[in-house]
Amino acid sequence: MKKASEMTVEELGAYIDQSVLKPDFTEAEIRQYIQEGIDYHCATVCVNPSSLDIAAEMTKDTDTKICVVCDFPFGTSTTASKVLQAETYCQREDIYELDIVANFGWIRSGKYDEVTKELRVIVEACHAHGTAVKVIFETDTLNEEQIRQACECAIAANADFVKTSTGFITGYEGKGATNEVIQIMMDQCKGRIKIKGSGGIRTREHFLELIDMGIDRMGIGFKSTPVVLGLDK
Question: Which catalytic reaction applies to this protein (predicted)?
Answer without folding.
Answer: 2-deoxy-D-ribose 5-phosphate = D-glyceraldehyde 3-phosphate + acetaldehyde
